[in-house]
Structures are given as structure tokens and as C-alpha cells.
Design goal:
The protein has 303 residues and is an alpha/beta fold. The chain has helices at 32-41, 43-54, 72-80, 93-105, 145-154, 185-203, 214-220, 241-257, 264-273; strands spanning 9-12, 15-17, 62-66, 85-90, 112-116, 130-136, 156-172, 224-235, 290-300. The strands form two sheets. It has a seven-stranded mixed β-sheet, with helices on both faces. A two-stranded antiparallel sheet has the order 1-2. It is globular, with a radius of gyration of 19 Å. 47% of the residues are buried.
């Protein structure tokens, strides 16, 4: 499950989620390499967020990553909180296999576990309540978000913290005027992604429309002391090879997913951006960057 939901942002958990998919039915296992690569690229942002959480959540015994995907953020939790046991929860076995392998590779497997199952029901299998439960771009893939938040809150230990990564700003990769096509391409893509996201939400089983006032929603399920903080990813031009590869994949997904709704000129511009032989393409542009913001909302279960 994972997303800013734009069809491009995939934490999944990272599902790392700028999302772009064909249609609104998402094949998470098929996206494992993309999810892992994006989460690794965004690691400085996640490290800042976890450092902020660490000032509130001291010496947690159990951290649960809800919608963990390939486990990049789960393993960051294990590194930032060396005394904690970390449990990665996801509905995709292949993604959890990748998370388990990552934990072994990083030497944290002795206090790292996985739990497969659909959310939020899978959390009923927890042996112990969580001191910190992290839902990174996973909540918006659940039809009834308020009910899911209540389920998450119900698995917290007294004094435990729920941290929800939702919202922020769409990622930017290029200047407003890129020298080809009409200026403002990314703003128009953002508008189409918002429509995609609304359709994705509407098609989820048991979908319930909800005002996305996250602090109020957290309070509505009995949690206290809501806080919100946004974190920046700022990778300036010239882009690294990893950032460039990420941009190419995101724009490729734009082209595949939004093609029916794109203006003819914008479609032609995307084709040029994705042409590795074009001097104006993403592979060669010196002005390519990655800039975005992700927002974390926290609240605490009363003691």
C-alpha cells in the first residue's frame, strides 16, 4: 500500500510514494526496485523526520512500520533507535522478503521482524503494543482512513506515539520554463495527478470521503498532543546519477499513466524529456534537480 499521492510519490511504504501507475490498481511487488531506490534517494528526509521523532519518543521498545514496503525506512528506524525491536508490516510478501534481506545486510536482523497481512487487520496479530507506530504514505491506500487510524491507535501502548506521513508538496525536477514546450509543465502534471489520486481513493473498497485535517482526525480517535512538521528533500542541480534515474522513472510513469489526459504539446514534451539521445532530455539536462517536502503528523495515546 503506500504515497503525497500524486501518482508519483511512492514511500510505499517508503512505498516511497510520488506515484505514477497504470490505472489505479497498483502492483506493489512489481514496483519493488523503484520503491527501494526512491526511499534510498529520500533517506536524508527520512533521517531528519526520525531524528525529530526521537526527541519525543525516547527508548521505544517496539516500533511498527505500517506499510513498510521494501523496508528502507524500517531499517532506518532500527539504526536510529538501536535499543528498539522493529516490525515491518505489509500486504506484499515479496516486499517483506526485500525488507528482511535488507535488515540482514545491515546487521539489524536480530531485532527486526516482518508481518504479512492486509491493513489494518494485520495489526491484530501483534504480540505487544507499539511504542511508536509509523504509517508512511500508507494510510491513503485504505478506504476508511478514520477507521484505520482508530485501529492504529488501538495498537499503541499507553504513552505510545502514532506518526502519519501524509501530504506535503509534490516533487519538482525542472525549472518552470525548460526551453521546450509550454512553460509550467509540472504544474499541469500536478493537476492531472490530483485527479488520478481522487479516482484512486474513490475506487478503494469501503472508500469514505474525509477532510484531510490530520491533527483533527488523530484527535477524533482518542489521541492527544497532535504535532505537525514538514521535512525537505533538496538535491540541487546537477543531479546525481541516482536522482537522474529517479526523475526518468517518474516522468516515464507520468507519460504512461496520464497519457490520455495530456495535451498534445505536453505529450510531445514528455517524449523529448524521455529521449536519451535528446540534448533537452532528462538524461542530459544540467538543470535537473529534486526538491520536495513531506509532512509528518504525530499524536500520543493517553496514559
Amino acid at each position: 500500500m503506500a504515497h503525497d499521492h500524486h501518482p508519483t510519490d511512492t514511500h510505499k511504504h517508503a512505498r516511497s510514494h510520488d506515484h505514477a501507475h497504470s490505472g489505479t490498481d497498483i502492483d506493489w511487488a512489481g514496483m519493488v526496485d523503484h520503491l527501494e531506490s526512491q526511499a534510498e534517494l529520500f533517506a536524508p528526509l527520512y533521517e531528519s523526520a526520525l531524528s525529530w521523532l526521537g526527541k519525543e519518543v525516547t527508548e521505544p521498545g517496539l516500533i511498527v512500520d505500517v506499510g513498510s514496503g521494501p523496508g528502507v525506512v524500517s531499517c532506518l528506524f532500527a539504526e536510529v533507535f538501536p535499543g528498539a525491536r522493529v516490525l515491518a508490516v505489509d500486504g506484499s510478501e515479496p516486499l517483506l522478503d526485500r525488507a528482511r534481506a535488507r535488515a540482514e545486510r545491515l546487521g539489524v536482523a536480530d531485532r527486526f521482524g516482518v508481518l504479512a497481512g492486509e491493513l489494518p487487520g494485520a495489526l491484530e496479530e501483534l504480540d505487544y503494543p507499539a511504542d511508536l507506530l509509523w504509517a508512511g504514505h500508507s494510510l491513503h491506500h485504505l478506504g476508511d482512513q478514520r477507521a484505520a487510524l482508530a485501529a492504529f491507535a488501538g495498537r499503541l501502548a499507553p504513552g505510545g506515539t502514532l506518526a502519519v506521513l501524509e501530504g506535503g508538496l509534490p516533487s519538482r525536477f525542472l525549472p518552470r520554463d525548460i526551453g521546450i514546450g509550454r512553460p509550467g509543465l509540472q504544474a499541469r502534471l500536478d493537476a492531472l495527478q490530483e485527479e488520478w489520486f481522487a479516482q484512486m481513493r474513490a475506487e478503494l473498497p469501503g472508500s469514505v470521503a474525509e477532510t484531510e485535517d490530520w491533527p483533527t482526525l488523530l484527535s477524533s480517535v482518542g489521541l492527544k498532543y497532535a504535532r505537525t512538521r514538514s521535512f525537505l528533500i533538496d538535491l540541487p542541480a546537477p543531479a546525481s546519477d541516482r536522482a537522474r534515474a529517479y526523475a526518468v522513472e517518474i516522468f516515464s510513469r507520468f507519460r504512461d499513466t496520464l497519457t490520455d489526459d495530456l495535451h498534445t504539446e505536453d505529450r510531445a514534451t514528455l517524449d523529448r524529456l524521455l529521449d536519451p539521445a535528446d540534448p533537452a532530455g532528462l538524461q542530459r539536462r544540467p538543470d535537473l534537480f529534486v526538491l520536495g517536502a513531506r509532512t509528518v503528523h504525530t499524536a500520543v495515546r493517553p496514559v
